[in-house]
Structures are given as C-alpha cells and as structure tokens.
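Data availability (excerpt). The following record was deposited with the supplementary files.
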Amino acid sequence: MAWASKFLESHHIKAKSAPGKGLCIFGKEQEIRSAMVEVFCSQYHDIELLYPVDEFTDLFETDLYEDIRHEMLKVIRESDLTISDLSAKKIATYLTLVPERIKKGAELEFAEDMKNELRNSYEFEVAEKILKQKTVRQTGIKDENEILNLTRMLLVNKDVDLRNTRVPPHISPELYRETEELLTEMNQFFRKENSSLFSSSLYEQYRSDMLSILLKLQLQRRFDHLDSRHFISYTETGENNYSPAALEYTRKVIGWLEDRCRQKIRRPDLIRGLSSIFHYILKQIPFDIQKMDLRYLWQGRPGTGMICPHGSPAQKKIRLS
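Predicted structure:
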C-alpha cells in the first residue's frame, strides 16, 4: 500500500479513506488517466499484474487498440512528428480509456492560458487529424478539452532532434529561448566547478544534442511532470552500456537540473539521453594508457583483498593456494 501511495503521489494524486466508500483517490483527471495508462501498459512488457483486477482491465476498449494504434501512427508518419514505440502504445492505450472516463462524467480542466498555448501548437493539428480516423471516431471524443489533452500528450511524448534539419522541431520561440538560457546557465555552473569537459571542443560538438534533451525536458516540465514514476521505459538494462564516468556526469547534471527545476527527475528517456552524450564524448578523449599486469589477491578473510602488480613484494608475502 505504501508503494502504491508513492506511485500515485508521483502522479500528483492523493489516496484518502472516505467514510462509507473506502479508499478514494483525488487529483486532476489528466493525472488520474496518466496513472491508469501507466499501470495498464506494464502488461505490454510481459509483466502480469500481481493482483489482476478485471474491473480495471474492462475500463479499456482493448478490442479497438490495434486499429487505433495503426491509424494514429499513419497520421504521425505523415506529419513532422516522431514518437517512440512505447509512447505510441501509451497514447493508443489512452484513447481506449477515454470512452469509459467520458461515460463516468470525468472532465478535464485546463487554465485559459494553457488552452491557448495548446490550440496554437502544431501538435493540435495532428491531434485533430488523429481523432478524425475511422476507428478513433468510435471513442466519441469531441469535447475540445479532450482534443487539448491529446495535444498535450503528443507534446510530452514527441522526439526532439535538432540535428535533423529536414524536419522543423515545432518549438515555440519563447520556450526555445528559455531552454538556450538554461543550457548556458548549466554550462557556466559546471565550468566554474572546474569541470574541464564542459569547456572542451568535443562538448561543443554535442551542443545541439544537449539542447534537444533540454527542450524535451522543458516540454515535459511545462505540460506534464518530471517526477512521475514509470513502470516500463525500455531502458531497464541500458545503463550497463555506459561507462561509470558518463553515469557520474549524468548524475551531476540531473542533480543540478532538479535543483533548478525544483522537481525530482524520473524521466528515463532524459537520463538515458544525457548518459549517451557523455558516453560518446568520453569515448573520443584520448588517454595515455600504460598496460599493467595486475593480480587480485585475497587471503580468505574480509578486508584482506588487494590489487597489486604481478611479482611485487606484496604478492610474494601472500601465500596462494
């Protein structure tokens, strides 16, 4: 129960006991739907729910899922957007949930300035095209707030790659400027910390990649939350491919961004992206390497292990069986 409460809290939902009703959850409809989709999508990764609940599964129109996903991907391929396979699954799953939430009378709420920002985005046009597809129309989504929430999900889940000059990133000038300022501030901080990597020419070569990651962070921060817990990310085994030095740089950058954004960052795609950049930079730095013939010696008791060069006095003192 404690773990479930933490999961809900990470999605900005509170669980409270209500007299005569049992345990109830309270939060914005957007957050409740996101948490439901996250739980449901864990099943796509060959993970069975510990306590399967048919009443929960029945909330999703699973018969429509494949057709909705194919129609949605067709629209996205014809647009300037790209999204990951996992994001496509989550958005399609979300669309299968909407009819039941509409029947329940659960309404989405947006501030007026957020509505205007979403309406004026390129993703709003894509969302409208998705909702006009044959199977998607069966969900009965017509309310503008429902269109706006699909727009929000496209913004949060889309890929950002500034190296791909053939496709415009569709980022507002204001958000782009704020993100460039954030990157400049971050670089200045680590240069003052005597981190020579952030002053190197190699790091500058990856500036557009770093800016792409920060733009995605800004979109997720603006239209969602950075601290939401995720069951499945497709990155569960990826961190072993990065060097310890790359992971340490990533840890420092994430720590700085968390202080700057005043939010815990649990976005696997952001963490993986940063690790990749530092990994590739460090791989290109030439190091003088002197090969050594080392031995690990252990005398069979805790605290007696040591590494020393082969043939050293320390090795000769230790009898090896």
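Summary of structural features: The chain has three domains: 2-157, 173-283, 292-321.
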